[in-house]
Amino acid sequence: MSTPTLELRGATDELLDQLAEVVREGRTHAEPPPYDDPMSFYEKDPDLRVAKWLRAVWRGRGRVEPEAWRLYFVVMVDGRPVGEQTLSGVDFATLGTVTTFSWLSTDLRGRGLGREMREAILHLAFGGLGAKEAASDAFVDNVGSNAVSRALGYEPNGSDWATRQGEPALLNRWRLTRDVWEQRRRDDIELHGVDACHALLPLA
Questions:
Q1: Which of 15, 44, 100, 182 might form a disulfide with 74, Cβ 3.0–4.6 angstroms?
Q2: What is the pLDDT of residue 204?
Q3: Of all residues in the chain, what percent are helix, strand and coil, respectively (each to 5)?
Q4: What is the 3-state secondary structure (H, E, C) of 153-178?
């Protein structure tokens, strides 16, 4: 996928190897901590942090079943890998719902790229894969993620508890319907390789 300011490229081992430097340098983190447990990014040892992150990605890429699948993309800005964006489906053929997850290098936050990444992956979900609804969640103190969801037309969908570094923390849950996305869909996001997704994913 490509937008006027970034690309989402399939997370090949080569791209993950390049992105690993961002993980090793700890530029995945934020305050307050944005991730629930377990999360490799909370690992203090840089090499172990990278190893755990890569193992999680490899496991996720290897599972493509009707019950659950996950697509991994590396975020590219000016030809440089700067983050990760994923799209997951659980019982997608029946429910038509997806969830998203992302992180962006600390040196590029605050420039609107988080929203751009989300809009790109939603374009794939709704425009490319035919999703009916997209979900997202974020801790209540994750101002950036909650602001992106609100700005893109997501509706509040309750709350839930999760652990964050072993401590309980409250999550906001959000949902975006296809109808709302259609009203806001952009015409400057390009999709590439969608036929391959249809061939490999259990979408119907």
A1: 15
A2: 87
A3: 40, 30, 30
A4: CCEEEEEEEEEECCEEEEEEEEEEEH
CA atoms of 192 and 81, how far apart (whole Å): 18
Question: What token pair was written down for 171?
Answer: 């999550």
Q: Is residue 165 a part of any domain in this protein?
A: yes
Backbone angles phi, psi at 171, to 5 degrees: -110, 140
The model's pTM is: 0.96
CA-nearest of 162, 141, 11, 8 to 72 is: 11
Spatial contact of 88 and 99, defined as CB atoms under 8 Å apart: yes
Task: Convert the pLDDT of each residue in 101-119 to its tens digit.
Answer: 999 999 999 999 999 999 9
Q: For the segment 151-203, what is each residue's pLDDT rounded down to a tens digit?
A: 999 999 999 999 999 999 999 999 999 999 999 999 999 999 999 899 989 99
Do residues 108 and 82 lie in contact, with contact meaning Cβ atoms separated by under 8 Å? yes
CATH number at residue 29: 3.40.630.30
β-pairing, 80-90 vs 97-104, is antiparallel
